[in-house]
Design a protein that fits this description.
The complex is a heterodimer of chains A (583) and B (168).
Chain A lengths: L2 E6 L2 E6 L4 H7 L10 E3 L4 E3 L8 E4 L6 E2 L10 E3 L3 H16 L15 H8 L17 E2 L3 E3 L9 H9 L6 E3 L6 E3 L16 H5 L5 E3 L3 H8 L5 E6 L20 H11 L3 E4 H24 L9 E2 L4 H10 L13 H17 L6 E7 L3 H5 L6 E2 L2 E2 L3 E4 H10 L21 H4 L6 H15 L17 E8 L2 E9 L1 H12 L7 E5 L18 H17 L9 H11 L5 H7 L8
Parallel strand pairs in A: 1-7, 13-14, 13-16, 15-22, 16-19, 21-22
Antiparallel strand pairs in A: 1-2, 3-4, 5-6, 5-7, 8-9, 9-12, 10-11, 17-18, 20-21
Helix pairs in contact in A: 8-10, 8-14
Chain B lengths: L7 H13 L7 H12 L4 H11 L3 H10 L11 E6 L2 H5 L2 H12 L12 E6 L11 E3 L2 E3 L7 H18 L1
Parallel strand pairs in B: 1-2
Antiparallel strand pairs in B: 1-3, 3-4
Chain lengths: 583, 168
């Protein structure tokens, strides 16, 4: 390995060849400011268009300032990061960016979480010396994402996520010069495009140009409507991230405080999407075993591999891009929608109420869930199974508005019966979790034996595509896992070409799975945040006494009292769905 | 945006152009040039087909089409008029010439006259600065153009097509 010697601010540093000046500086504790640059280590995600020029430094012997993020360290380089010239250039760049940026920080949805705001503060900008034209681009609202392009600084992070990581290809920089904006083809609205609402553009946007549709006001109205019983469900990934919004260390589990907060907000029943995740495993696991059984008997019509169907962005992705494969994913609805269907049937009956008198709210790490709950097939006579989906971030905002001191809350337990869940339900929140949960159940149902071990470390991790073979009592079951839609696309191309050797594949749209969802607290380019959330999810799993979905006593009771059998008539009606060709 | 239906021949042409560049994403600009040369312009449907053939997103194709002023999504007229707005032409009165074309044709830069005969565009330097200001109509170059000559240049082409129509 060739090593390079250079000095940065008179400090000598030795780095591997190919290291950038920015990385070399970071390695010796020099923090060069960056704005468009973003790198998520271990997730293979990097944005360095060298466009914003905030990171410029002085290189001895070079006439021009160099952008540290995309200048390789070279032998003998002498770098100065805080000369008058570098500081002035940085501040000028910042002022020019701000001269075409609305100054409505006080009321902006991104205020307090905005990288641009932070940078203006860090560079000590107190005056903007440049007055010029301001972009006037129309706002675009969709079921999940709002584009307020006047706030765009053309960092191109969203474009990189949409094209390179997700391969959805909706967003691109169009036009040139002052008229340049990031937009869908032909400047159509997002809801006319093939956007999956995965929300990864929102997750990385450094400004308020891309934000979620805010449904908190509708939730508050429901909470204060005396004629409504308001039921809430919380997705597994929320408990591993919500604490960050209140200054807690990433990876802090706040399950008990989350329940306490929801109760104080006035929800009548605080339930858990993990319960519905266990239910999903019952249905999806039964479907896997059914298809596998028929395959082993030589049925030529059976479709394998089976693909998970929990992730609504992934569902929309294949409906647009792989409609020819729409018979392959499991027909099981997502846990959010299973919960809604059960809450407004089984639970409403238990309460002796009509479904119209119930409002189901879900707390999700996700933006696509907002779109999913509005899909026509998830409503009965126009009454949706899930009324509102709000993100982890929106919940944090509700808690703050309602004068609740989150960090001092006691730990409380979910309500029964839709709040009881197993460790298998909670790991749905991370990449690899759904398939591990499915394996735990399918193994025991298929072999009739107890699992020799519960933790399947071969299914865990952060690699974009993972493969493992699990021994089902002599039957080698080939399992694939992909997170990030670009990785999913690779596995789908294999299936389309007839080259896939998998029996079952788990797919999650967001890098890391739901813990890295578009509705989670902003990670600001720090991949460690996502990894710590993953550790928290596995910790929650190992803390549970019951860790297999089919052993959840309340799930058993639900089948006995109401649903009958997995894949039975009632289960089919309430817990399964169909997919549409949207190409 | 009104949708148009591409003819089978147009579809075939686009596919052949893409294939001649081995359907390489990196050849997008060349493909767009060739397609515009053959079809006159690049409507949304053409871009969609190119995106499909080169296996890239439509947004990226549209991004490139809107970045380069040479590419157009509006069909060009039978006689495309280009007025040079390079430095030499500009200081010698190209703007007044342009305004006169706009006035006579009642179109803006980038538009085509309703009868489909003339389209108006600007370009930067055709390398004939000695003849400034320069106007091109199709392949024909006019030098030292004054606003007073505009009417005659247009008439020349109106007549030209009438004569051709007669002889045909």
């Amino acid at each position: 390995m060739e090593m390079i010697n250079l000095t940065i601010d008179n400090k000598p540093v030795v780095v591997k060849k190919g290291t950038t000046v920015l990385e070399a500086a970071t390695s010796i504790g020099i923090h060069i400011p960056t704005l468009c640059y973003m790198k998520l280590d271990d997730l293979n995600i990097e944005n360095k268009p060298g466009g914003c020029r905030i990171c410029v430094v002085e290189v001895k012997g070079r006439r021009n300032l160099a952008p540290a993020c995309c200048t390789d360290a070279a032998e003998g380089m002498e770098i100065s990061t805080h000369t008058i010239r570098a500081i002035n250039a940085r501040r000028t760049v910042m002022e020019l960016i701000l001269s075409d940026h609305p100054s409505d920080c006080l009321i902006c949805a991104k205020s307090g979480n905005c990288d641009l705001q932070d940078m203006a503060h860090r560079l000590g900008i107190r005056e903007i010396h440049y007055k010029g034209a301001q972009s006037m681009y129309r706002e675009d609202t969709s079921p999940a994402i709002i584009r307020e392009i006047n706030k765009c600084i053309l960092c191109r992070r969203c474009e990189m996520m949409c094209n390179e990581v997700q391969t959805v290809g909706v967003l691109s920089a169009i036009n040139r010069g002052f008229d340049a904006v990031v937009a869908p083809a032909f400047e159509m609205n997002l809801d006319h495009s093939v956007c999956t609402y995965c929300g990864q553009c929102v997750a990385v946007c450094p400004t308020g140009a891309l934000t979620e549709v805010n449904n908190t006001a509708a939730v508050v109205r429901a909470l204060y409507d005396p004629t409504k019983t308001v039921v809430v469900q919380t997705a597994p990934a929320v408990r591993a991230a919500l604490g960050e919004e209140f200054g807690m260390e990433a990876g802090t589990l706040v399950t008990g405080k989350l329940v306490a907060a929801l109760r104080r907000l006035g929800f009548d029943y605080v339930f858990d999407t993990d319960f519905a995740a266990d239910l999903t495993i019952m249905e999806e696991g039964a479907e896997l075993l059914n298809r596998l059984g028929r395959h082993l008997q030589g049925d030529p019509d059976v479709k394998l591999p089976i693909l998970t169907s929990c992730c609504p962005a992934w569902v929309k992705f294949f409906e647009h891009q792989f409609p020819d494969l729409k018979e392959i994913p499991s027909t099981a609805r997502s846990p959010q929608q299973m919960f809604g269907a059960i809450a407004k049937s089984y639970f409403a009956e238990k309460l002796g109420k009509k479904r119209e008198d119930l409002v189901v709210v879900s707390i999700m790490p996700c933006l696509a869930k907002k779109y999913e709950c509005g899909r026509d097939e998830f409503a009965v006579d126009g009454n949706p199974d899930v009324d509102y989906a709000i993100t982890t971030r929106e919940l944090a905002s509700l808690i703050k508005i309602s004068n609740i001191k989150f960090t001092s809350l006691p730990n409380e337990d979910f309500d029964s019966p839709l709040g009881e869940s197993t460790g298998a339900g909670v790991i749905f929140g991370t990449t690899g979790g759904v398939i591990e949960a499915a394996v735990r159940t399918a193994y025991e149902l298929y072999t009739g034996k107890d699992l020799p071990r519960i933790d399947f470390h071969e299914l865990r991790g952060m690699e974009g595509i993972r493969k493992a073979t699990i021994d089902f009592n002599g039957l080698p079951l080939n399992i694939g896992i992909a997170h990030g839609l670009g990785n999913a696309r690779q596995l789908l191309e294999e299936i389309r070409a007839g080259k896939s050797s998998f029996h079952a594949i788990e797919i999650m749209s967001c890098p890391g799975g739901c813990i890295g969802g578009g509705g989670q607290p902003y990670h600001h380019g720090d991949a460690d945040v996502i990894k710590k959330r993953q550790m928290a999810i596995y910790k929650e799993d190992s803390n549970k006494t019951i860790r297999k979905s089919h052993e959840n006593p309340y799930i058993k009771k639900l089948y006995e009292e109401f649903l009958g059998k997995p894949l039975g008539h009632k289960a089919h009606e309430l817990l399964h769905t169909q997919y549409f060709d949207r190409s | 945006m009104p949708r148009i239906k591409l003819s089978e021949t147009a579809i075939q042409t686009i596919r052949e152009v893409c294939a001649s560049f081995d359907n390489q994403e990196g050849e997008l600009i060349n493909v767009l040039h060739k397609c515009q040369e053959k079809l006159g312009y690049l409507p949304a449907e053409v871009q969609e087909l190119i995106a499909q053939e080169l296996n890239m997103s439509i947004a990226k194709v549209y991004g490139v089409v809107t970045f380069y002023s040479f590419f157009t999504m509006i069909p060009k007229g039978e006689f495309p008029i280009s007025i040079c707005m390079g430095t030499a032409c500009y200081v010698r009165g190209a703007e007044q010439v342009l305004n006169e074309f706009k006035r006579q044709l009642k179109v803006e830069v980038g538009q085509t006259s309703p009868d489909g005969k003339f389209s108006l565009s600007c370009l930067r330097c055709v390398g004939a600065c000695g003849l400034a200001p320069v106007v091109m109509v199709g392949e024909k170059v006019y030098g030292r153009v004054s606003p007073q000559q505009v009417k005659q240049i247009l008439a020349e082409h109106q007549e030209g097509c009438m004569r051709e129509a007669k002889s045909a």
